[in-house]
Design brief:
Helices cover 54% and strands 14% of the residues. It folds into 2 domains: 222 residues, Spore Coat Polysaccharide Biosynthesis Protein SpsA, Chain A; 201 residues, Four Helix Bundle (Hemerythrin (Met), subunit A) (Up-down Bundle), CATH 1.20.120.1760. The protein is elongated, with a radius of gyration of 27 Å. It is α/β, with parallel strands linked by helices. The longest helix has 30 residues. Strands 1, 4, 5, 6, 8, 9, 10, 11 and 12 form a 9-stranded mixed beta sheet that branches. Strands 2-3 form a two-stranded antiparallel sheet.
C-alpha cells in the first residue's frame, strides 16, 4: 500500500489549558481555520484521505465541529471517543489502535506544519517497517525549547525521549507513523501509570521499534499557547512570500496584501471573489485613464497599484484556507490579461486623441503584445522544457507587479504613455531573453 492510503489520527481529546482560550483547543481559530480543520486540510493536501479524530474534553462541541468539517470539505473523517483522556494522550493513541488494523499517522491538532513537511514525511515512511517519529535537528528554529520534547538518537533509532533530557540530538515535531504492534507499548505505559504518548514511545525505543526521521520543510510549531499561536500566525503569513515573487511584489505589494489577507481570511470571501475585485479595480482605473485632468490620472495610477496589491490576496487566501484550485488559477490569469489590455488600451486611446497620430496606438499594441507574450512565453518554457524557468533580474521586468507599478509611477508623474512605452520595451526584452535561453537549452 502507498503511505497516503494509511489514515491519519488527529489527537483532539485534551483540555488544552495552556491555551487559555475559553473553548476546546481544536476549535481555536488560526487565520480563518480552526486548529483541527487546518491539521486535517494540511494532511489532505499531502495526499492522506482518511481521518480519525480522537475526542474527549467537551466532546460534544468537537464532534459537532468534525461534522462541520466533513460537510464543508467533503472529508472522510470519523470520531473515536477516548473516555480515558484525562490520564494522558497515550490513551488517545491506544483508543485509535483499538479501531485500526493498518499502520497510521498521528498528529496533534495544535501542531502547525508546513505542508511540505507532511508530504515528505508521508513519502519517507512509505516502506518503513518500524514506527517513526518526525524529528527536527535544527534546534535553533524551535520556538520554546524548554517546553519541547527532546530526542536522543542512536543511529537512526530513538534511544530516549522526554522534555527533561539534557543531552539530545533533535526535537519531537509531533508527527508519528505507528504500526499496529505499537499497541503493546501504549498499553504497557498505561498499566505502569504513565499514560503519556511519550512513555509509549520510550517503550518502543527500548525494543528498537521506533526510528527518528528528520522532517523536511520550512517550518513547524507546537501552538499550544496564545504566544505560540501568534508565532504560528507569523510563520504562516511569511510562508506566503513566494521565491518567484517579483521585486515589487516582494518588497512592496506583499507587505500590504498580507495585512489585508490576515483580515479577509476570517470572512467568507473566496479567492475567486478577490480576483474579481482586483479585476474591477483595474477596469475603474482604465476608465479613469480616459480622463485628461491630472486628478483623474493620478487616481487611475493609485487604483492600478491597488489592484496589483489586491491581486496578491486571492492566492494568499487560497493557500491560507486550502482553497486553491485549477479553475481559480485559470480565472485569475484570464482576468489579469483582460485588465492589462483594458489599461493599456485606454491609455493608448486617450493619448492618440491628444496627439492626433498613431504613435500612442503603436505603443499600446507593443505593450499589450508584450504583456500577453511574456506570460505566455514563460508558461510555454515550462511546458516544453519540463522544468521551472530560472529566475534572473531580466525576467523580473516581465512580471505583472512590475509593469503595473511603472504605470502607477507614470500616472503620478503625468507620463502614463511614456510609462507604457517603458514597460512595452522591457517586456519584449524579456521575451527575446527567453528566446535565447530556450535556444541554448536545445
Amino acid at each position: 500500500m502507498k503511505a497516503e492510503s494509511f489514515p491519519a489520527v488527529i489527537l483532539a481529546a485534551g483540555a488544552g489549558r495552556r491555551m487559555k482560550a475559553g473553548m476546546p483547543k481544536p476549535l481555536v481559530k488560526l487565520l480563518g481555520l480552526t486548529l483541527l480543520e487546518r491539521t486535517i486540510m494540511g494532511c489532505r493536501e499531502a495526499g492522506i484521505e482518511k481521518f480519525y479524530v480522537v475526542v474527549g474534553y467537551e466532546k460534544e462541541k468537537v464532534i459537532k465541529h468534525v461534522e462541520e468539517i466533513r460537510k464543508k470539505h467533503g472529508v472522510d473523517v470519523e470520531v473515536i471517543e477516548n473516555k480515558n483522556w484525562k490520564k494522558g494522550n497515550g490513551t488517545s493513541v491506544l483508543a485509535a489502535l483499538q479501531h485500526l488494523s493498518t499502520p497510521f499517522f498521528v498528529l496533534m491538532c495544535d501542531h502547525i506544519f508546513d505542508v511540505e513537511i507532511i508530504k515528505n514525511f508521508v513519502k519517507d515512511v512509505a516502506k518503513e517497517k518500524h514506527c517513526v517519529l518526525g524529528i527536527d535537528k535544527k534546534i535553533e528554529r524551535v520556538h520554546d525549547i524548554d517546553e519541547a520534547t527532546k530526542v536522543k538518537l542512536r543511529g537512526k533509532f530513538i534511544e530516549d525521549i522526554g522534555k527533561e533530557l539534557k543531552n539530545f540530538d533533535a526535537v519531537d515535531t509531533g508527527i508519528f507513523f505507528f504500526h499496529p504492534y505499537a499497541k503493546e507499548a501504549m498499553k504497557k505505559a498505561v498499566e505502569e501509570g504513565d499514560a503519556s504518548l511519550i512513555q509509549g514511545v520510550k517503550n518502543l525505543a527500548r525494543e528498537k521499534k521506533i526510528k527518528g526521521i528528520e522532517v523536511k520543510g520550512e517550518y513547524w510549531i507546537d501552538a499550544d499557547t496564545q504566544e505560540n499561536l501568534r508565532v504560528a500566525e507569523n510563520l504562516l503569513l511569511k510562508s506566503l512570500i513566494k521565491p518567484q515573487d517579483g521585486v515589487i511584489s516582494k518588497y512592496i505589494n506583499r507587505k500590504i496584501s498580507l495585512l489585508i489577507s490576515k483580515r479577509l481570511c476570517n470572512t467568507p470571501i473566496t479567492p475567486n471573489a478577490i480576483s474579481f475585485i482586483s479585476f474591477l479595480l483595474s477596469i475603474i482605473a482604465a476608465f479613469l485613464f480616459l480622463m485628461t485632468d491630472y486628478i483623474y490620472l493620478a487616481l487611475a495610477g493609485i487604483i492600478t497599484q491597488a489592484s496589483s496589491v489586491i491581486d496578491g490576496c486571492d492566492g494568499e487566501i487560497a493557500r491560507l484556507k486550502f482553497q486553491s484550485s485549477p479553475f481559480g488559477a485559470w480565472l485569475d490569469t484570464v482576468l489579469d490579461r483582460y485588465a492589462d489590455v483594458a489599461i493599456a488600451g485606454t491609455i493608448s486611446y486617450t493619448y492618440s486623441s491628444i496627439y492626433g497620430n498613431a504613435v500612442a496606438w503603436i505603443i499600446g499594441v507593443l505593450a499589450i503584445s508584450g504583456f500577453i507574450l511574456s506570460s505566455y512565453s514563460r508558461k510555454e518554457y515550462v511546458i516544453r522544457y519540463g522544468k521551472e524557468l530560472p529566475t534572473n533580474k531580466i525576467e523580473y521586468f516581465g512580471r505583472r507587479d512590475f509593469r503595473l507599478f511603472i504605470i502607477f509611477i507614470g500616472a503620478i508623474l503625468a507620463y502614463p504613455l511614456e510609462a507604457l512605452a517603458v514597460t512595452a520595451t522591457l517586456h519584449h526584452i524579456v521575451i527575446i531573453a527567453l528566446f535565447f535561453k530556450g535556444r541554448n537549452c536545445r
